[in-house]
Structures are given as C-alpha cells and as structure tokens.
Design brief:
- Helices cover 67% and strands 5% of the residues.
- The protein is built from twelve helices and three strands, in the order αβααββααααααααα.
C-alpha cells in the first residue's frame, strides 16, 4: 500500500479517504483485500475515528464493504456501477465541452495544450500514475474554463468505480488513445465546433466499453464469478 504525504490543513478524514481511494484505484488495494482500521490508523499517524469515517464514505458509494467486527473489504469490479459513474460524467462533460467551445480564451487553450504535452511525455515513459493524474487534470481544466469547478469536485466523489477501470485499461491496453482523444478535443475547441467536441467526448468516455474484454482477460480474478 502506498502512503501519500498529508497535505497542509488536510483533515484526518480527508487524508485517510484520499489514501484509501488512490490505493484502490491503482490496485495497490486489490478487490477482495481487507482494510484494517487499526493498522491503517497507525500507519497514517491517525486515530481510528477518521479512518472509520473515511471507510463509511467509501461504503456509501459501494467501493468498500463494511462487515461487523470492524472488517472492511475492497469491492469487486461491478460494471453496473462503472456504467452509472460514466453516465454521470458523460451527461455533465458533454454539456461542459459545449460551454468551453463558446467561452475558452487563448490562455485557457494554452493550459490544455501544455497539459497534453506533459501527457505525451508520461505516456512515452509509461508512467501511468502521472498520466492518469494529467488525464484528470485535463478534465478539471475544462470545468475551470466553464467556471464550474465545484461540479468537478462533486463528481470526484462518485466516479471511483470508473477510475479503477480506467487504471486497469492503462495497465492492460497496448494501444492507448487517451492522449490522442484529448488532442482532438482541443482541436475541436479551437475551431469552436461544439458538435464535434461533444462527439469526441462521448467516444473518449466510452473507451472503457471497448477495453472491457482486454481488462477482463488480464484481471479475471477481480470480477464476480456470476458477472
């Protein structure tokens, strides 16, 4: 399990939540693995209360299952929950990119372009953790350019199922096209072409469906047997 540095003024609950979420997404905590409140609290230098609060939040979104006697287990991949999270992103971000096509200025477009340059660097070096962070940052910038940053913050609370499958795609798909997707979206935004930008966003957010067979082949142990 990777222990992240605590941010300035970050509450114990938020710190524990961030650490657990990132480790679940990157499969440091694999589906079926147990999370011990007491052990994690000791490792993070926290009391058990903020760790318990973080686990309760993750139980609410069904990425962690809490059982009696303080045993918590990381949930298996559930494509129904992945689809639900993707539906939310698709609905919001297609409307969002239309706004960006109308309102983005040259400074905002430069921010997107710089982000894509860094994506190429980390894709070439196969540094998937940094690439995924930059993917997230690209979408965060879109929300900022549309003056909707709080919606992005709320979205992060429920997309962990989708994020875990995104990470599995990075680990298993040979020909990754996420950077190319972002480049094409930026070109559509520069042309002020909302119809094309929306079509590109839909394709980008649907890639997990195209990658599903490859993901299941590489990680069959993480899916329910009856799924």
């Amino acid at each position: 399990m990777e222990i992240l540095e605590r941010l300035p003024r970050e509450s114990g609950r938020d710190y524990a939540l961030r650490v657990i979420k990132e480790n679940i997404v990157t499969l440091e905590l694999v589906p079926g693995s147990q999370i011990s409140e007491s052990q994690l609290a000791g490792t993070l230098g926290l009391s058990r209360t903020p760790v318990r609060e973080a686990l309760i939040e993750l139980d609410k979104v069904k990425i962690v299952k809490i059982f009696p006697q303080r045993r918590s287990v990381v949930a298996d991949i559930d494509y129904h929950l992945v689809d639900e999270a993707c539906f939310m992103r698709n609905t919001l971000e297609c409307a969002l990119i239309e706004l960006v096509c109308e309102t983005a200025d040259s400074r905002g477009l430069d921010r997107l372009e710089e982000n894509i340059r860094l994506q190429h660097f980390y894709l070439d070096s196969r540094n998937f953790k940094e690439l995924m962070k930059l993917d997230d940052r690209f979408h965060a910038i879109l929300f900022e350019l549309a003056q909707k940053p709080q919606i992005y913050a709320l979205l992060q609370q429920i997309t962990i199922h989708f994020d875990r499958v995104r990470w599995m795609a990075l680990e298993s798909v040979q020909e990754l096209e996420i950077v190319q997707d972002h480049e094409q979206m930026l070109k559509a935004i520069r042309r002020r072409d909302p119809e094309q930008a929306v079509a590109l966003m839909k394709r980008h957010l649907s890639r997990y469906k195209f990658d599903a067979a490859t993901i299941r082949e590489k990680f069959p142990q993480y899916f329910p047997k009856a799924d």
